[in-house]
Specification:
Blueprint: H1 3-13, H2 27-47, H3 60-66, E1 70-74, E2 77-79, E3 83-87, E4 92-104, E5 107-116, H4 122-127, E6 139-145, E7 148-152, E8 158-168, H5 197-214, H6 218-230
Parallel strand pairs: 5-6
Antiparallel strand pairs: 1-8, 2-3, 3-7, 4-5, 4-8, 6-7
């Protein structure tokens, strides 16, 4: 869907398409509201706090809607004695899994089963013979801390490679000739929304409710919120 179409649809639903009063919506407001709506919609679907209580990959629709945000990134690894640390990508939104390939002695590239664990339980997990990292059983665990993935080895093996599978932030739309509200620089190109048209329609309703709340338009706020949820 073209950005110009998104803009028209948002103004139409706010009843400001031909408005010349003080509530006239600027293009940067449309960009900011739509990009905010993208993030809010994505987080709600991933967490399962939508109307049908479905999180990521809990139904065919969730798999289909959210697959565009799933990425694979090779982590830059740093040896931290008993674990390896890899910085999260700048567009990271939510964890999915991490694929780890370990080596020990003459055995290389063993694919490990990695469990996502809580940072507060690290000491207990390292002491537990059933749960601590083990190259022979090809099992270990990982945590998130300080913007990095920590893959624990307990000095039993080395990590040769780690690939993070994650949900990223949606790409922010830009409207050519409009001042980007995130950089305060005029956009020189159009950056369209990456979602399918049916999802964009839902996000438009989400953006309308955000803008309606900003201008204290109660009817449009209620309609946008209800429509966005009803079509999820």
């Amino acid at each position: 869907m073209l950005n110009s179409t998104i803009t028209i649809k948002i103004k139409q639903r706010l009843n400001k398409l031909d408005s010349q009063d003080y509530d006239n919506i600027e293009c940067w407001s449309v960009v900011e509201a739509f990009n905010k709506a993208q993030v809010e919609w994505s987080r709600r679907q991933l967490h399962g706090i939508n109307l049908v209580k479905e999180g990521d990959e809990q139904s065919t629709r969730r798999k289909d809607d959210l697959q565009v945000l799933m990425e694979t990134s090779q982590l830059p690894l740093a040896d931290q004695d008993y674990y390896y640390s890899g910085t999260l990508p700048v567009d990271y939104l939510q964890w999915k899994r991490v694929d780890v390939f370990a080596k020990k002695g003459c055995c290389e590239n063993r694919r490990m089963t990695v469990y996502f664990a809580e940072e507060g339980n690290v000491n207990l997990l390292l002491r537990d013979k059933q749960k601590q990292p083990n190259f022979e059983w090809a099992e270990t665990f990982a945590t998130l801390k300080g913007g990095a993935v920590n893959i624990y080895t307990n000095k039993d093996f080395d990590v040769a490679e780690a690939n993070l599978i994650y949900y990223r932030q949606p790409i922010k739309i830009q409207i050519q000739g409009c001042v980007d509200p995130y950089t305060s620089v005029q956009s020189t190109v159009n950056v369209p929304c990456e979602f399918k048209d049916d999802i964009i329609e839902v996000i438009i309703d989400e953006a309308v409710s955000i803008l309606a709340g900003d201008i204290e338009s109660g009817n449009q706020f209620s309609r946008g919120t209800e429509t966005a949820e009803r079509n999820n």
